[in-house]
Amino acid sequence: MSDTAQDINRNPAIDWGLKAYVILAYAFVFAPIAASFVFSFNSDRFPSIPLGHFTLDWYRAVATDPLVWEGLRNTLFVGVTVGVLATALGFGAAYTDYRYKFLGKQVYLALALLPPTIPVVILGLAMLAYLSRIGLSGNALSVIIAHVVICAPFAMAIVRLRLSQMDPDLEAAAWNLGASEWAAMRHVIIPFAKPAILGALFITMAVSFDEFAIAWFVSGLNETLPVKVLGFLQGQVSPRINAIGTFVFVTSMTLVVLAQILLTGRGAKSRPAADE
Amino acid sequence: MRRSLSLYGLTFSLPLLVWQLLFFVFPLVFLVALSFWTVKNFAMRPDFDTVNWVTMYGRGVFWQAYGTTFAFALAAAVLTSLLAFPCSYAIAFKLSEAARRWAVFLMVIPFFTSYLVRIYSWQIFLSDAGIVNVLLGKVGLGPFPLLNTAGATMVGYLTLNFPLVVLLQLFSLVFIDRTLVEAAHNLRCGRIRTVFAVIVPSARVGLVIAALFAFILSFGDFVSPIYLGGGKATTLSILITDTTKSGQQWPRAAVIALTMIGTLLVVAFVAVRFAYKGRSK
To answer: Is A209:A261 a contact under the CB 8 Å cutoff?
Structure first.
């Protein structure tokens, strides 16, 4: 908003100070992320400055650790399954909210959106106790179940935003032209929501990749990679954490950027009509 | 558009409902039942006994942890809100449209980095021979014991909360009617006064909700108090992980968890009441 440039109260020194503060704030936010990246290539056992020499030792140590590979396999398996399930459930909930009005809808929406606001230690304990009671704890399945609970709300929010951009008459028009509800879903709704569906898929996968607390409670011996990191943190602290962290960061960011491209790419295309 | 629920409608609405009932509501309800179970010979038995509640509530350690956790979370919520506000304010009012988009995009990135890795990274900064102490040593200061302090725990909470709080504050600030701000300026309302008399009240809902989220996140976090605070100040979340991971005292952990949920509900209710106070008129 450049119109505020005419403010009588505008003081360049204060503007400058505020902008410097913004930079400082971003420096604080990105300092640990950047440090983790830098020290993952640094030779020192106990990282500090001045830097040691460049090395790939930590990546090598991680790459030759069979436990890390097993964790990675678990993480990928869990993440992909969670992404698909959470997106499907979230899409259904978003469509329900978009199209229907019914008694108890507030409760339905609360169930659909609340889980991420419950502290993860509490969810972790509740899930562990409940899942072990019904014989489902201590394996990858229990992590999947728990992660879908906290990921589905994100998928729902993303898809719901996209549906709110759709002309509500579009679906009705398809029915009037003789399409069944299922056909309208297949040929109108899903094509229109496709970027958001894919975006939700990637975002939920990324959320699952990074979640460690609930996974730590319920995973038993089938630890995911973030739970392994927690283990490293508890045991001897080692720059291997940085190597894993950098790897997970790159993976997550790839997913997020893909989602971002899908979600913003839509704006350029025909807005009122369905894509394609 | 409105039709009665059909097979078609149920196909889309039911799966999530069933899933969240089975795996979200039931576990939380089960937690309530679990808190009345008893533990004999390292085995849990279904029961209806208030022994866990009596034991936990009778312990000084529990109330001490409760006080610590509440004070930490409150401090983190206030501190994050205060530190984030100038940043959100500058992004909302002082940056160009394009710069603001970048600022938002960059603030989203931390959500997709591992919180654990960021905490480990802070250990590199704060340890005795860490980056901060080396830099301080260059100017002849220190070394200071920074790690395993309440201050380090706060750094961890800030790491956890700051991006979310900035985004939530930003979201309420960008929707402020600019004509209000201009009107205040035209009426010779000073810069600082405009912020407190016009901008903060207009954005109150967003600011309070942001602080509430900071409180909730910090209240439940066990990573910062353990790995940056050194576990010296026991918080409720540390008590839960310890009680759950070492042995079969899950019913007692359930008591702690339910107390936490109760506290959060009260805090959330008070915060929302405060946020919307006088709004509906």
So the answer is: no
